[in-house]
Amino acid sequence: MSEHLNTALDLAADGLPVLPLRKGKVPFGNCPACAQNACGGRPNMKNPGPCTCPAPCHGWAAATTDPHTITAPTWARAWREAAGVAYHPGGAGLTVVDLDNPAAIAWARETLPATRTVPTTRGEHWIYQGAMQSANAVRSGVDIKSTMAYARWLGPGIGTVTELPAEVRVLAVKEPAAARRGQQGIAVPVGTEGGDCRHRTPVYLERGIAMAEQRITEARSQVHATVYQTFLAVLSAHGRCGCLTDAYVARLFTAAQAKGESARHCTDAWTNARTALGM
Question: In whole angstroms, what separates CA 102 from the centre of its chain?
Answer without folding.
Answer: 18
